[in-house]
Amino acid sequence: MSSIVDNIKNWWRTLFRTWINEYCLVFSDLGVLLFFLALPLAYPVTYTLIYNPELVEKVPMAIVDNSRTAESRELARMVDADQYTEVSGYAVDLGEARRWMKERKVYGILVIPEDYAKKIGRKEQAVLPLYCDMSLLLRYRSVLFAMTDIQLQLGADIRTNTINNSPAAFVSSAMGNTVDTESFFLGDVTQGFASFIMIGLVILILQQSLILGILMLGGGSRERRRKNNGVDPEAVKGPVSASLLGEAFCYVTIYMPLTVYILHYVPLMFSLPHYGEAVDYLLFMLPMLFASVFMGQMLRPLVVERESSFLVFVFTSVIFLFLSGLTWPRYAMSPVWFVLGSLVPATWGMQGFIGINSNEATLGDVSTPYMMLWVLAAAYYILAVIITRQANSYDLRHYKVPSVP
User: Fold this and answer.
1) How many structural domains are present in the chain?
2) Dihedral through CA 371, CA 374, CA 378, CA 380, nearest 10?
3) 45 with 104, same domain?
4) What distance in Å separates the CA atoms of residue 248 and residue 203, rounded to the nearest whole number?
5) Has residue 169 been placed in a domain?
6) Could you give the residue ranges of the DSSP H alpha helices within 264-307?
7) Tens digits of per-residue pLDDT, 196-255?
8) Are 280 and 371 found together in one domain?
9) Are the C-beta atoms of 97 and 109 separated by less than 8 Å?
10) What would the DSSP string read from start to end of 149-191?
């Protein structure tokens, strides 16, 4: 009975000693501080500044006016006056306009056919060929928005003129579109790119910076083991399960103030969507941080040198971004990629935080991502304990100095 009590005391003693010892290791390592502090502090601000202003406006366009009438000139003026587009020049023919597009002078071409004014006068449908550069979807989106608005406005003006010139002119004020729509852009009222991507990207920044710092610490420990017969002299001796949990408490307590800064103050600084309650998203981020820590501890044996952590970081960042559902909806992924994405804490972290922050959901509304993060945290903790034990045993056997007979 006393041995069980001693083991329990030793387990808790190891946990708290590791917790304090890990603070010393973190704050005495300039490289780790760079990724634990400088990266989370600087990246969100830098990225948001790059994505401001949020909308792509005044996209250069070329006009090929084959009609050369008052109606075609009015159409060109509307294109130039729109918020999203501007007329950079009038091309003689489509071939010249295409050369401008190849030279990146314009990113859209509007062709006004010869019979444009004639068809409008005959109350027939006029077709306007539009050529768009699809190399950047944001430019295409701006051109498409502009042409859609102009098309609707032209249609409304033509109907109004038709009614005014008819015997039923007295009811023209009551006439409008047969069916009209009213749009509500929930979660991103400005339709801005930064408001769309930064709210999810900050979660990936938190995860990746945390994992990178843990891997760098692991690489430093591995280097010390090679020099000391497979033993790290700066590590606390004791149960691996207690050591890993003590390290996790250290990292999470360091990252909680950074989480408040990134998730609360950065959106306020740049007027990004910020509607949820702070208590909800801070409680939600707790399992997100633990899951990221244990995932980093599970991957740590892969790093044999401090510099090797950069390879893991660079290799996983792009993959995790694609799997998160931020750039491509997860429901449209194949089952294999969907399952792989579900194993990444940032995937569930993005889904839950976007719901809370942008759509004013409560913690209960995002219960599925919340519970999945706790499941991942528990699973990665168990795997980290098993893998770390095996790695420590391997280091003791591999780096042990052979005895001299």
Assistant:
1) 2
2) 110
3) no
4) 18
5) no
6) 266-269, 278-299
7) 788 888 899 999 999 999 999 998 888 888 888 888 888 888 899 999 999 999 999 999
8) yes
9) yes
10) HHHHHHHHHHHHHHHHTSTTGGGGGG---SS------TT-TT-
DSSP letter, residue 105: S
Q: Give the CATH number for residue 71.
A: 3.40.1710.10
Residue 331 burial (CB count, 10 A): 7
Parts of the chain with a pLDDT under 70? 1-2, 160-180, 189-190, 401-405
Q: Provide the 8-state DSSP code for 234.
A: T
* Both structure tokens of 319: 């993959």
Q: Is residue 263 part of a domain?
A: yes
| pLDDT tens digits, one per residue of 165-179 | 655 544 444 455 566
CA–CA separation, 91 and 105 (whole Å): 12
pLDDT of residue 401: 56
> Nearest-CA neighbor of 293 among 243, 336, 361, 329?
243
Start-to-end C-alpha separation, the chain: 42
Which residues 6+ apart lie within 8 Å of 346 measured at CB? Answer: 203, 204, 206, 207, 208, 288, 292, 320, 324
Amino acid at 101: M
Question: How far apart are alpha carbons 38 and 206 in whole angstroms?
Answer: 12
Model's pTM, two decimal places? 0.81
| C-alpha to C-alpha distance for 21 and 235, rounded to whole angstroms | 8
Show the domain range for 147.
Answer: 59-161
Residue 123 belongs to a domain: yes
Do 337 and 252 contact (CB within 8 A), yes or no? no
Q: Sheet holding 59-65: strands in order across?
A: 85-90, 59-65, 108-112, 130-132
Which DSSP helix (H) or strand (E) runs through 88?
strand 85-90
Q: Per-residue pLDDT tens for 141-167?
A: 888 888 888 888 887 777 766 666 655
Examine the domain organization and report whether 333 and 286 are in the same domain.
yes
